[in-house]
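Protein in question filed below.

…
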Amino acid sequence: MNFLAHGLGGRSDLPLNGVAAITGGGIAVAMSFVALAQVWSRPWLNPDAGRPLSFLRFVDSPGLRWAARILTLALAAVVVAVALFGPPEAEANLAPWVLYVTFWVGLVPLSVLFGPVWRIVNPLRTLHSLLSVVSGNGCQNDHYHSRLGHWPAAGWLAGFAWLELVLPARSDPHVVGGVVLGYAAVNLVAARLFGAGWFARGDGFEVYATLIARLCPIARRSDGMLILRNPLAGLVRPDDEPGLAAVACVLIGATGFDGLTRTTFWSSSGVLGDTLGLLGSIAAVSVLYAVAMRLVSRERGLPRRFAPTLLPIALGYAVAHYFSFFLLEGQIPIILASDPFGTGLDLFGTRNHTIDYLLVSPELVAMVQINAIVLGHIASTAAAHDQALRLLPPKQARWGQLPVVLAMILLTCTALLLLLSG
């Protein structure tokens, strides 16, 4: 799957001073914490505070929602059909590009800009609802055990990371079609057993999109009103869901491993070696977070309650690693969509188009990558500080979270080192 390599060329083509970037990033995170400790002395973020957006009430229209759900289901069916019956060459088949670029990477901007849209249009939810109606059992029962929390979603996301980053045949259209059908079948069976609540906690893609959507400035207040609010306000909600920290650590660790595989000091040693590398990267992030939180407090459940504050880091890593990939390789699905089955059609007039590599410059890529990583860690530090003011005694809230800040600095410097070591 070399043709689906992420990013714009090697890291050596980016106009950056490596030492200055790494040092400056670490200092920026450290100074942001010092400033926060001095001037931010009480909780400020409020998930329900914001300007009402009453003109957006039309998005709650049942007709609009069902139209979007049916359209998404139809598009998903077409992608699976193309994977199974379209061109056998991965480069010419629409399905791998839609899965790894349009869908996986596109979930990030979709969720950050428009909120938990995927939760509404998720084709698995639509199928579950239709099957429940046909069977006459309805879809209201929810038997999901609360102790499972987000752990199934963490497992799904780790599995998809393995598919995307390790499996040699990951771009084979038949593999893509089989993976999509298998994922759908398992989740539909789980929803049949546990109820529709499975999707909000166990469907890896929906959980991922919904968590990233917490950073959307357009959000829903507790009374249902849509508001424009601080993007960090959704990170301090008083939830305590098992497995939430695991999801965040999988996202950060997997993206970190993606960066590691594209450095000059990583040499792939086959599926086993890459699998161990992926697991090791996720484990390293998990241990770092667990140790830092343990040094802050021994209170049970505290790591879960701080876990959402890791989401800006996951977002920053995603933007840094996939920005140019999405804008450049993201043009290919548009090109291939004109002739999805390779029959000579030109439905949208894009069949003979080629990628416009001048769309983004190395300078722009460098600026976005560095700022995404640094600002992601600074935003995470700010959200963690506000959460600490809510959950910890005043003195401990200001300086007791120093281990977490040191972990943030270490992650920042490591991420920048991986970014600049191509």
Residues 2-419 form one domain. The chain has one domain: 2-419. Residues 97 and 103 are 9 Å apart (CA to CA).
